[in-house]
């Protein structure tokens, strides 16, 4: 009995410490992020740049973004200027082709009308319609040749570093219209008398006049298209 009491008194009681760790599902509040200008003195690191939700990029690259946008705008402007210069050269080439064609056809019409001097009724000077056709063809030939030469010189100057006009302005628009209307009026006036002659007889005189009138209509179409292009890029 005494031995059991002694053993009981000498034994030490052991206690198991309780776990102080929190449960796995417990919420732990996170500290707020540092401001953009904050610098960690301990780790010598700057705070990350803030996220811009508008364009998906991080803030802080303003200088690089500005330089990139400026370079992009300069590239777009240069490309636009190159396209405008190419369009002006193409327009000048088309105007040169149309006016040269009108000049050549008017010259052939002048030669055909002036060659009709076969005496008696086959004399073009006896008919005011043919005299009017001859005058309008001469005017159209000289005007179209002068305009074609001017466009060619402008294109050549642009090839050596100058600027291509891309159209001649309001004067060219008005000049093309006036000459084209004179040419179509003269050709239309000479057509009825030529048809009456051809209904009675077919010879070199009526054939030459028919060809001259046809060339007058074609030259009118070329000058009218030239006037449309000049007016489109002028007005």
TrEMBL record:
One Pfam entry for this protein is CASP_dom
From the UniProt annotation, give the residues forming the signal peptide.
none
Presence of keyword Membrane: yes
Could you tell me where the Low complexity compositional bias lies?
Answer: 8-24
> Residues annotated as region Disordered?
1-39
Q: Which InterPro entries match?
A: CASP_dom
Q: Main localisation, per the record?
A: membrane
In which compartments does the protein localize? Cell membrane
The membrane topology term of the UniProt record is:
Multi-pass membrane protein
Transmembrane regions: 94-113, 133-152, 173-191, 211-233
Q: What residue stretches are annotated with the Casparian strip membrane protein domain?
A: 90-222
Q: What's in the GO CC field?
A: plasma membrane
Listed A to Z, the keywords are:
Cell membrane, Membrane, Transmembrane, Transmembrane helix
PANTHER family, alphabetically? CASP-LIKE PROTEIN 4A4 (PTHR33573), CASP-LIKE PROTEIN 4B1 (PTHR33573:SF36)
Q: How does it assemble?
A: Homodimer and heterodimers.
Q: What family does the Swiss-Prot or TrEMBL record give for this protein?
A: Belongs to the Casparian strip membrane proteins (CASP) family.
UniProt protein name? CASP-like protein
